[in-house]
Amino acid sequence: MGLVERLRKEWFILGIVLVIAVARLEPGVGVKGGPLKPEITITYIAVSAIFFNSGLSLKTEELTSALMHVKLHLFVQIFTLVFFPTAIWVFLQLLSITPINEWLLKGLQTVGCMPPPVSSAVILTKAVGGNEAAAIFNSAFGSFLLGSSSSVPFTSIFSQLFMTVVVPLIIGQIVRRYIKDWLERKKPPFGAISSCVLLMIIYTTFCDTFANPNIDLDKFSLIIIVFIIFSVQMSFMFLTFLFSTRNNSTFTPADTVAIVFCSTHKSLTLGIPMLKIVFAGYEHLSLISVPLLIYHPAQILLGSLLVPTIKSWMVSRQKALKLTRQPKAPVKV
């Protein structure tokens, strides 16, 4: 494989490295309130574009089928809202005897209680080619479910989810009805479009991370907390992969992809307002926020780096399943 061909194949990984490097050099460009205005361009325009893109690319029957996939939804929501926080609590009982700052540990516990994000899990599932419709449902439902039961204003959560997820998705489906033949004939690069939007999200996320004064820890604590967060993410991704691919599982490889991302990702958009309300008046609020501020870019970076590997597994697994389901040719006597 030539260098140019190799670069073309790995353009997304190279893009991740590039946008992180640019964010490190000049984080002020992509921070909230900066020239790019990510609080508008990313939170509303980019996220709406993701779900409009999904509405265009998904067949209506795929969306309907995803809504009826109750077993998958139960798996994701129980893992996210029950198993994840419980496992983190048990893990923190062991860490409590270490010299790690207790407020950082409280921050890790709150990370475990957060719902999945609306955008990143969907984009990564789409980039791999997994069950995008299931990812859309679980990401939106998880945020809505936890947000509506917390102190965060219900109206604000509902209106934002409705305007950035439901409306663009419906518009995409309506447009698809009129240009369906053109879409099937031309096959636009929906996956590449979503990957480009993800690069924008990675860039602005790391701009916020590099410019955030709250992440001002001694090097030892910072290294330890980053190591713990990456270890937790990798462990839980591996666990969800094992659970959803066991022999008696009815999940398809595409389902597994959605499960892995939706079950392990956590929302910063909903998380920070929740922390500010729950821990209002705490002098250590900045320390409590640090794990979530690190978890968010870490999950996007780790998920993006794993896209080629997971995609390769899914494709090979789908081919293997297809071969096993083919009827055997009769033996000639």
Give an overview in words:
- With 333 residues, this protein is mainly alpha-helical.
- 78% of the residues lie in helices and 0% in strands.
- The protein contains 14 helices and no strands.
- It has helices spanning 3-9, 11-25, 38-57, 60-67, 70-95, 102-112, 120-128, 132-148, 154-186, 190-211, 219-245, 253-264, 268-278, 285-325.
- Helix 3 crosses helix 9 (154-186) and helix 7 (120-128) packs antiparallel against helix 12 (253-264).
- 38% of the residues are buried.
- The model has no long low-confidence stretch (mean pLDDT 83).
Q: What's the rounded overall pLDDT mean?
A: 83
What is the distance, rounded to the nearest whole angstrom, between the alpha carbons of the first and last residues?
46 Å
- Outline the low-pLDDT stretches: none
Order of helices and strands: HHHHHHHHHHHHHH
Strand fraction equals under 5%
Overall shape: it is: globular
As a percent range, the share of helical residues equals over 70%
C-alpha Rg, in Å?
A: 21 Å
Q: Please, how many helices?
A: 14
Which structural class should the secondary elements be placed in? mainly alpha
The number of E-state strands comes to 0
Seen as an oligomer or otherwise, the chain set is single chain
> What's the story with the biggest beta sheet?
none
